[in-house]
Amino acid sequence: MERKTMKNYVLALLWATFMFGGCLARVVTVSPGPLIRVESQPVSIRCDVNDYMGPREQDFEWMMSREANGQRMKIISTFDASYSHPSLSKRVASGDIAVMRLQDNVVELKIGEAKSQDAGFYWCQTPSTDSVISGNYEAQVQLIVIPKTLKVTPQTPPSVVPEGSDVTLSCNVTRELTQPTYLSVTWLLKKGGTSEEILTFGPQGDVVTGAKYARRYADGAIRLVPGRNGLFELVISRVTTLDEGIYECNGTEWTHENGGKWIQIVGSTKEMGTVAVTPTGQSLSVKASSSSSPPSMNLHLTPGDKLTLICSVAANNLPSLSLEVSWLANGRDVITMERNGVVISNMSASSAQGNHGEANIERTGADEYRLVMRQVSTEDGGTYACRVRAFIEKGGKSSGGGGRWHMAAEKTSSPVTVKVSQIKPSFTLDIETIVHPQMTSEPTELACHVTNITHLPLGGRLGVTWEHTALPGAASEPQATHSVGSIDGYGNLLPGAMYSDRLESGMVSLTKVQPDTFKLRFLRTQEIDMGQYVCAVSAWSINTQDNVVKTAEHQSLPMTLRWDPKRPSLNVVAKRIREASVGGATFEMSCTVATQNLGEAGYSVLIQSQDSLESNVRTIMTFSPDSVMQHGGATDPNRRDSLVLTKSGPTEFRFRLGGVQLSDRGFYWCDITAWTKQQPGQTWTRATSAESNKVKIDFQENGPSFSIAIHSDTSTVYPWQTAKMKCSLRISGSSPKTDHLAYEVRWFFTRLRGGQTTTQVASVDRFGVVRKEFRNSSSDVSIEREDTHSYTLNVHGAHDSDSGEYHCVATPWYLSASTGAWTQAGELTSSKIFLTVRFAVWESLKLPLLYGVSASIGVGLFSLVLGLVCAQCCCRNAAHTPRSRNKLMDLEMD
Fold first, then answer.
1. Which residues form the signal peptide (predicted)?
2. Residues 514 and 626 in one domain
3. pLDDT of 773-817, one tens digit each?
4. Bridge partner list, 190
5. Which of 85, 590, 669, 854, CA to CA, is 20 to 30 A from 871?
6. In a domain, 108, yes or no
7. Measured between alpha carbons, how far is 240 from 138 in angstroms, rounded to an integer?
8. Which of helix, strand or coil describes residue 393?
9. Regarding beta strands 587-596 and 61-65, do their DSSP bridges make them parallel or antiparallel, or are they unpaired?
């Protein structure tokens, strides 16, 4: 059966080779031409060959001629260094002419700087490696070299333009037309060392914009104005400060080759000049004043009076701006006139009723806006300012005025103080420390007492604001003051920006314990809380519209809060709890943490080890401050059940390693880090860390010793036969019982003798489970255990890809008599044997020849017997007439 299969395989291979070889026809192609290039510019001509026979890597030869049918001149070859014509040898040696192999069947002829004498016809030729001559072996392309006539002449734009105006960028791009070439012009903006494309026109008359300018071009803010005689103009409308930089103009000459591909043959970039945009904010000025003569910055009014304030605006590019004007009272918006003239009042409904001031804004000129408030009340007093926001339309002139708007500048005038006379309550303040911290993380409590209260109206209320000023740092650093929080006249708690999270979580609290006493409490004081504290108490009264308004405010003297901050420290001590004196025993150690200047904390633990004091450190297990235990990558996953890390006390951790092996010997210690939380719900913050002393596991295991060897009955097999290679192990010393011994055996294969690439073929673990790796071969493998110490690798249906070096690696396991635990011995590697799979030519052909000879002899014998039978049958029926003895008489009768 094997011989018949081999016969069919050989016949199919011969038939496939004949059919495949008969269909191939070599095809050599070059870049489509004619190729138009410019003098002094690089030239690349690609040549590739396909559908060829022979080796994968093909060689190429380049030749050229001034005329199509002229004498060819050798340029360069991929395999003959002396191929070049003497007139070109210097350029080839200098690298000006070179051939670069892109793939096995693709090369590129490169000319560093094209010359006029390089124009002509180029041939790419491939020497034949085919068994049958078919297809084409060379291809031709024409190269046209034209002089470099491209000129780029930009005009210098204005160096400084105001924001919101237009900029025209003019650039002249020309060339002498000797061949069908095309031009394109590109404007670029250079900032720093990077140039960004604004717009490109050409070479087909199309327009391509940069990514950041597409929207502006669609809105008409960027317009292209083609001129005559190579003049092109780019108009940028409504420039902003983002349009500052160095403008460049690039002119490029293109050629359109056969195949529909545009090729850039030469280009030139020239700087047009630097354009600076004057921001609107530099010239914008806003001034607020009273309508009195002369204008005053301080007004004294009584309840019911009329308040009139004037806002004056000035700017260099005022006609290009659209203004939004707002009046602010004590930093809050009162009324706003938007840029389209719509007025929006931001006053509450209650303040617009009765005898209270009703605000209105009017535009009295191109640069003047007036605020009018009738019948002011005491709550209308304060500082008034005019805020102006200047907008510039992003869309161009063709956008119809409906484009997008960009706020160019915002300015607020100096305030005008308006005082409305009233009788203010008065009182005195006293601040004291109730709980003073001695160290970080301890609680702090401050109290603010209000005494000598006078002129507080019936139903009046008190509010408080706590402010903190940090301790002074360097001499050049100003002291920053921040609001901790406040309680307003409605009793609402208003947290400060820096303390909002701590107030919401309860780590900081503001309370009113009595009508005249306020407290500030820190549950866990931080170092940043040191500094000066001030309580500002405000008096609130109810007006006729039942609104609570602030009538007075006083601040206490500052009170300094300071303590000696001590850095936390950590000390870790490791001690051995259980000694591992023999293999298979249990090792246990504890790590105890001692802290100083550290409050409530969580701990993360790393159990680390190293074979010696100079070897690499391995992480065995980790324990997070949230009590999450994870295994490191230093231990076999199958032994993770033997690893235990627990928290045995508030500051004590225990590590246990069961069934120690020889590979576990070394040093073990704990790396512990202390973590703290400033408040519940926040993430852990690292405080400090320390490593413990190192505990050593050191024992000697007097177990058996092993050796390994590999051998095969034969090193040569024929295809489809089975190859056998036996891996034998020997044991010496104290030999355990048979059922107390097991092996893990792995087989490896190297394709070449002494090669570096080794792959695993198959393996059997100590429990007898066989695993076969994926193999790119038609053969199959199996592992046979002949006895306790012998394993045989069988390669069934050997193939030529199975030829190579084989070796085996074994790991013995034995049951230790001293501990009763399975112990792993050292890994053993056998020598290598080489297996050769030969192709038996006579064995594959002798059977077909024997069948042919036998068939020929059989057909010949059958033909001879058939002829004799036919002759006997035909001659038996013919009548025989005896001839007369008298021949003369017979003739006369005839």
1. 1-25
2. no
3. 877 777 888 888 888 889 998 988 888 888 888 889 998 887 775
4. 195, 246
5. 854
6. yes
7. 60
8. strand
9. unpaired
Instruction: Tell which residue, 125, 114, 147, 141, has the closest CA to residue 257.
Output: 141
CATH number of the domain bearing residue 28: 2.60.40.10
Alpha carbon 812 to its chain's center: 46
Domain tally, the chain: 6
Within this chain, do residues 158 and 220 fall inside the same structural domain, yes or no? yes
Partners of 640 in the β-ladder: none
CB 359 within 8 A of CB 309: no
Residues 6 or more apart whose Cβ sits within 8 Å of residue 452: 426, 427, 428
Residues near 136 by beta carbon (within 8 Å), at least 6 away in sequence: 26, 27, 28
Question: SS3 for 618?
Answer: strand
Q: Are residues 341 and 454 in the same domain?
A: no
Nearest to 508 by CA among 500, 537, 494, 438: 500
Question: What tokens were used for 184?
Answer: 């394109």
Residue 506: CB atoms within 10 Å: 11
Burial class, 95, CB count within 10 angstroms (exposed 0-12 / middle 13-18 / buried 19+) = exposed
Q: Treating both helix axes as pointing N-terminal to C-terminal, what angle do 841-876 and 2-23 enclose, rounded to 10 degrees?
A: 100
Q: Amino acid identity, residue 39?
A: E
| Phi (first) and psi of residue 267, to 5 degrees | -150, 155
**264 and 301 fall within a common domain:** no
Which uninterrupted H or E stretch holds 9? helix 2-23
Cα–Cα distance list, 397 to 284, 394, 454, 868 (Å): 24, 10, 66, 116
Write out pLDDT tens, residues 313-323.
988 878 778 88
CA distance 449 to 801: 96
Q: What is the DSSP letter of 379?
A: G
Rg for the chain, CA atoms, rounded? 50
* Tokens found for residue 236: 């940028």
* E strands present in 104-166: 106-111, 120-125, 138-146, 151-154, 160-162
Candidates 336, 321, 338; CA nearest to 406 is 321
Residue 95's φ and ψ, nearest 5 degrees, are: 90, 0
Q: Is residue 879 part of a domain?
A: no
- Provide the 10 A C-beta neighbour count for residue 351: 20
Hey, CA dihedral for 645, 647, 653, 656, is it positive or negative? negative
Question: Which whole-number Å values give the CA distances from 451 to 77, 99, 198, 552, 707, in the listed order?
Answer: 105, 98, 71, 15, 97
The parent domain of residue 473 ranges over 426-561
Strand boundaries in 679-832, DSSP class E = 685-691, 695-697, 705-711, 716-717, 723-732, 741-750, 758-764, 770-772, 780-787, 790-796, 804-815, 822-824, 828-829
- For 599-611, the pLDDT digits (tens) are 778 899 999 999 8
CA distances from 874 to 618, 862, 865 (A): 105, 19, 15
Question: Where among 146, 180, 198 does a domain terminate?
Answer: 146
- pTM, two decimals, is 0.43
- My answer on whether omega of the bond before 34 falls inside 30° of 0, hence cis, is yes
Mean pLDDT (whole number) for 343-361: 63
Nearest to 466 by CA among 387, 392, 520, 508: 520
